Amino acid sequence: MLRAGRAPRVLSVTELALMLRSALETGVGTVWVGGEISNLKRPASGHLYFTLKDKQTQLAAVMFRSAAQVLVFQPTDGMDVVVRARADVYPARGSLQLYVEAMEPRGLGALTLAYEQLKAKLLAEGLFADERKRPLPRWPRAVGIVTALHGAAIHDIRTVLRRRWPAATVVVRPVRVQGRGAASEIAAGIADLNRLADVDVLIVGRGGGSLEDLWAFNEEVVARAIAASTVPVVSAVGHEVDITIADFVADARAPTPTAAASLVVPDAAEVADGVARADAALRRALARRVSTARERLVALDRRLGDPARRVRDLTLRVDELGSRAHRAVARRLAWDGRELAALGARLERAGPIARLASARGQLEAAAGRLRFAAAMRVRHTRAAFERTAAQLDALSPLACLERGYAIVRRGDAAGAVVTDAAVLRPGDAVALVFARSRARARVEDTEG
Amino acid sequence: MADAAPRFEEALAELEGLVQRLEKGELPLEESLVAFERGVNLVRLLTQRLADVEQRVEVLLKTEAGKLIRRPLEDEEQ
Fold it and tell me: Which of A79, A94, A84, A80 shows the shortest CA–CA distance to A63?
């Protein structure tokens, strides 16, 4: 087989492999190639091994850990990807292999894919469930804010908090909100604010930006920190259209930092209105209580008048009984003259007329004492009533009326007092009672 | 504000309770007057607190050693 004289140069296997490698390097170099991932393996080393294939062909591929760990998404079997790779010979097995330096999903952007993958994962874990959402406190002592110290977000939040509820302390935990490392800073900020006893609610966010700008809020470490927070978290990332993973995990989501600030504190103006309403209700309720007491006193006075009348009634009855007795005795005396003669002397000594006269004297004395006692009691009660009435006058609704309030009554001025418009219907007649005059009016409309 | 003073929400809740009790009209007159006076005092307290407050703004910093420090946020830092 070997021709004499012109012995060909015989290569060693290694030499050939090196030639092939060199040929691949110069002839092919680094290329972008699209295909489908299959047979993906991810051993403990962190390197990714897979086959990149299309309908006719497949090539072995490896992506070393240094390249694989910067992928934002998780490659999976069947995923259609574009990779930047160089082809090389793996000398130990003599096989051709693609060394992948970068990878992107085909169709979707890498970030979009990563977002969808993390969202699906956390959703499956139940981190977005409504049952996990905690109610925001109504009266937070301090509001913790995780955001950039110099951004528009902090300015907007502080402006709203100062206007609505200055009583709450604001604690800012400054962090970077974009770029490498931002996500772990945000997560640490959430954990740090959780260590402050007076912080009752957190706002985590930043102003609007591109998907890349907002990326930190789509990272798992931030989502985990929000889920682990013991105080409720309001997310405030960018504007309406951008829903981040942080938004899904947070207890409440605000479209902007301004809106987040409005969510976490009450509005002092509304609270002041409530206090003013309570003040008016107190005065109204007291005035009503006093007028009820006054009505009861009047009724009591009427009843206290009764003993005097009873004394008069009693006196009349005593008089009547006395004269009846007198007549009866006289009739009997006239009825039997004989008996009259016989009884005359006895009657003279111990006759009923004498006893009756003495009884009548006693009765009149008793009636007199009763009249006096009743009169005294009435006078005493009246004096007490007048003192109380004078006290009541000081609290009287009339005093309110003097200041310009009016009482609304149903129908005419004798109707029931209206304390709630709910009892009124349009067209109802009402009377407006002022301090010294009254007016009749008709209800146009009710509300509330 | 003294430490013994009730928290705003507690004072507000007490005021609301007093209004409700007075509105029922079941309290004896004497107690009505006491409740009324207490209510008016609470109104004064609450109104004053709403008017007086100035917001405290602090910044939370972390030392190399991981210690947290709270201090007032200076205006020039914004």
Answer: A84
